[in-house]
Amino acid sequence: MEKILSYIKNNQEKYVEELTSFLRIPSISTSEENKNDMQTAAKFVADKLKIAGLKTVEIHQTAGHPIVYAEWMDAPDKPTVLFYGHYDVQPVDPVELWHSPPFEPVIKDDKIYARGATDDKGQLYIHIKSVEAWLSQVGKLPVNVKFLIEGEEEIGSPNLAPFIIANKNKLKCDSVLVSDTSLFAPGLPTITYGLRGLSYVEIEVTGPNRDLHSGAFGGAVPNPINVLAEIISKLHDKNGKINIDNFYADVIPLTKKERESFKKLKFSEKNFAKNLEVAQLEGEKGYSTLERIWARPTLDCNGIWGGFTGKGAKTVIPSRAYAKISMRLVANQDPKKITKLIKNHILKLAPKSVKVKVSELHGGYPVITPLDHKATLAAAKAMEKAFGKKTVFIREGGSIPVIATFATQLKAPSVLMGLGLNTENLHSPNEHFHLKHFNLGILSSAIFLDEYSK
Amino acid sequence: MEKILSYIKNNQEKYVEELTSFLRIPSISTSEENKNDMQTAAKFVADKLKIAGLKTVEIHQTAGHPIVYAEWMDAPDKPTVLFYGHYDVQPVDPVELWHSPPFEPVIKDDKIYARGATDDKGQLYIHIKSVEAWLSQVGKLPVNVKFLIEGEEEIGSPNLAPFIIANKNKLKCDSVLVSDTSLFAPGLPTITYGLRGLSYVEIEVTGPNRDLHSGAFGGAVPNPINVLAEIISKLHDKNGKINIDNFYADVIPLTKKERESFKKLKFSEKNFAKNLEVAQLEGEKGYSTLERIWARPTLDCNGIWGGFTGKGAKTVIPSRAYAKISMRLVANQDPKKITKLIKNHILKLAPKSVKVKVSELHGGYPVITPLDHKATLAAAKAMEKAFGKKTVFIREGGSIPVIATFATQLKAPSVLMGLGLNTENLHSPNEHFHLKHFNLGILSSAIFLDEYSK
User: Fold this and answer.
1) Which terminal Cβ of chain B has fewer Cβ within 10 Å, N or C?
2) What is the DSSP string of A156-168?
3) d(C-alpha A428, C-alpha B379), whole Å
4) Backbone angles phi and psi of A156, in degrees to 5
5) CA of A234 to nearest chain B CA: how many angstroms apart?
6) pLDDT over 90 at A362, yes or no
7) pTM for this model (two decimals)
8) Which of B201, B203, B225, B428 is the best residue to mutate to test the A interface, defined by the most A CB atoms within 10 Å of its own CB?
């Protein structure tokens, strides 16, 4: 192990150089004109996996961008870990706000600036390098390893779930390890063990069959905007709880231990509010801000529209009003069930005078990885050793849909060993990645392979 | 009187021919390219007033389109009536839905089809012809008459109120007579004696200082759309009453007599609902639909917007949400006072976690003309004689802002002797005017002058 770690420490410059080459490829998955760059990036990943010493390396073409698969399976009786990552990146607009061109990586203050630096090229590259260190120094890996690197994460992974479903056997594993999330704070080893799911609906309220003049009709007909507002206002109770029957039925409550560990994290609600310039935070009574975001289901209007929205005054009673409403779900809520619950609830709330339509737009399962799972423990220990600090366990408020797919299709829990930072401008201009975390990540990954084999 | 009425009856063809010429002028006030046509239309009106025998006829240029003024003041000790009307018309779009070109009048089934036929060229022309009949047959008028015909009604009369204020003495009168409203039913003589006013505000709710990802923040921050919906939902109580302190304080309640006379009107709530395709009407408890529209103040959202309103699902918590809200007011509510009431009320409803701004967009005073006013009685009697049916008294839910200006600036009540019909497509393609009502209108106007002199 010492040999491997020294090797990694001695090769840091080379790793950064290679990452720089990777970051030069403008692999923007949503952009038609970068289609060839997607192939180039996939080939880059495949080549590096071959160089690392993986025996099987395949590029699978899809209806969209290719999926790279690789494996090393010569550790019988040892568990198998699947590394997941994505080589595609977000668009670069507004490009004029970048201090240096997004695909010409620049190192400044020990951070590397480029689109994709932290999300997710820098993070996925960590595991290729740790595997390479093992194979070059020891000639074998202590566990079985698979890689699944896609090129469509930033556009919703349309071809990944079908690929997983079609290749369940090939992808079979005991756990998935993903580096695509954030450390809770710089230099603080962090495992994310829970993600929220989603149920997203659109409501359409129809009052009169046409737009009406509020002078000639006002007061005598149902106004769909007023009705919609009334419906929305009834979705929460006075304590910020979601007011839908059975909504909380399947929620796994936070354990005392979890709440205590969240409480120990350095997090200032005051600064959080100050940063957002809100005079007061708001949410479900009885829970802290971190608990509300990470471990409690929520309901938010994401959009609303109806009637006259231009400048000035138009006295119209619109025929229709619309809202988009989404609920963040936590384990073990089922988005299908929740969508049905809210749909029926809204229809029940609607007065007879209007027609209401509720359409499902999107759904995703929440996930939670047991804190005592072998892979979780191994990852936590590995980070602890690499960083020289105790690992913290957090959750995240957002969703990574593929994690739910791994859970349902491969029956494999995912360990989220993210090495990014929320402040690294992912999806914004001047994305960057702390090279210190890049290097600590490679060490963590190498130690993880060892710990996971024990 | 008989002589005058026969003269009118014998000249019906001539009147229609003249109206046809008037309707050929494309006097669209909002359209820059029709600027010269506005002058042509004003001149047409002035010429016809001269031909009718009015002694003073003036065209007043304004910052916008001209105002035509005329008077005949040789009836000392007799009251003075001011006829108000407008020669400008609405735009013609969508022009492809017209069955004949909007400025090439066509007569079909005793209706004349053209833009401006009922709103308001046909209706204003009535009074020019009645005055002409009097002066040509008798050589004088039984009362003093003034005409005030503007060219900017369809664009909000920006130059009329300043003109009235600057010419209070010139425009001094005992009553104003306006034909720019509708009969309650075809062939049914109708006086409109009340109009609603308006208070129109825009609300801006600001939550966090920027749009946020609902995954990373949902549940912990105030969502401005949810807050806005909550505010709107609290503006009505369960009985459809407006839930703002003192909102109803200045409302003149409907008299028993008014309610009875409304009840006698042939009006089917069932058909009204059916026509709008609503399963159920909605409004303030304890009032009929006509009462709600005509004589009760109301509150409606006219527009709402915020967050993501495109196709699909975007999990955003927006920084801001907006709504436009207007209240229709009834005598004697003061729009300034009401605007202040709602503003304070909304600020009081808003939770501390958000910033709320309420801006006044528009206001207008409600009006009510006493049913026992001399001019009201004369107009009702005149219509009754011309139509051969008892005149009904109705109110209207909309506003005609100039009527409030007459009330406040000239201290003159307005009698609304409308001869249009709600079904005559004013503001829509295929606007038309029933020639039967055009002719009955000229007779009514001629008889009115006589009745008003008594």
Assistant:
1) C
2) T-TTHHHHHHHTH
3) 71
4) 90, 15
5) 8
6) no
7) 0.89
8) B225
The highest-level CATH class for domain B198-251+297-364 is: alpha beta
Query: How far is B86 from chain A, CA to nearest CA, in Å?
Result: 20
CA–CA separation, A175 and A378 (whole Å):
11
| Contacts with A314 from chain B: Cβ below 8 Å | 302-303, 324
Distance CA A431, CA A115 (A): 6
Q: Which residues of A touch B426 (CB under 8 A)?
A: none
* Beta pairing, strands B190-195 & B367-368: antiparallel
CB atoms within 10 A of CB A75: 16
- Residue of A184, A200, A233 best to disrupt the B interface, most CBs of B under 10 A: A233
Q: How far apart are CA B209 and CA A77, in angstroms?
A: 54
- Which chain A residues are Cβ-neighbours of B296 within 8 angstroms? 219
Q: What pLDDT digit, counting tens, does each position of A233-287 carry?
A: 999 999 999 999 999 999 999 999 999 999 999 999 999 999 999 999 999 999 9
Q: Are the CB atoms for B431 and B113 separated by under 8 Å?
A: yes
Q: Chain B: give the shortest CA distance to residue A17, in Å.
A: 33
Q: Which residue of B has its CA nearest to A351?
A: B280
Residues 6+ apart with CB under 8 A from B295: B194, B254, B258, B287, B330, B395
d(CA B454, CA B450): 7
Please name the member of B219, B316, B324 whose beta carbon is closest to the beta carbon of A313.
Answer: B324
Q: Does residue B156 register a pLDDT over 90? A: no
Phi and psi of B196, rounded to 5°?
-85, 155
pLDDT band at B264 (very low <50, low <70, confident <90, very high): very high
Task: Count Cβ atoms within 10 A of the Cβ of residue A271 and give its class: 0-12 exposed, 13-18 middle, 19 or more buried.
Answer: exposed
**What class, spelled out in words, does domain B2-195+366-453 have in CATH?**
alpha beta
- Distance separating alpha carbons of residues A405 and A6, to the nearest angstrom: 37
Q: What is the mean pLDDT of chain A?
A: 96
d(CA A415, CA A163): 21
Q: Which of B236, B298, B303 sits opposite A306 (nearest CB)?
A: B303
Residue A427's pLDDT is 86
Q: Which residues pair with B144 in a beta bridge?
A: B80
* Cβ pair B280:A222 closer than 8 A: yes
User: What residue segments make up the domains of chain A, in order of their start?
Assistant: 2-195+366-453, 197-251+297-364
Looking at B31-75, list the stretches that DSSP marks H as alpha helix, in order from N- to C-terminal side: 35-52
Whether A328 and B215 lie within 8 Å, measured CB to CB: yes
The set of residues, in sequence order, having a beta carbon less than 8 Å from that of A402 and lying 6+ positions away, is A84, A153, A157, A160, A161, A164
pLDDT (0 to 100) of residue B144: 98
Distance from CA of A363 to the nearest CA of B (A): 10
Chain A residue numbers touching B352 (CB-CB < 8 A):
279-280
**pLDDT (0 to 100) of residue A156:** 86
Interface pTM, i.e. ipTM: 0.90
Flag if A328 and B214 touch (Cβ within 8 Å): yes
Indicate the length of chain A as a whole number: 454
Of B210, B308, B355, the CB nearest to A302: B308
The percent of residues above 70 in pLDDT, for chain A, comes to 100
Per-residue pLDDT band at B132 (split at 50, 70, 90): very high
The string of DSSP codes covering A409-433 is: II---EEE---B-TTS-TTSTT-EE
Strand partners, A72: A145
CB-nearest to A229 from B207, B219, B229 is B229
Mean pLDDT of A306-311: 93
Nearest to B293 among A216, A306, A399 (CB): A216
- CATH architecture of residue range(s) A197-251+297-364: 2-Layer Sandwich (3.30)
User: pLDDT at residue A354 above 90?
Assistant: yes
CA–CA separation, A275 and A271 (whole Å): 6
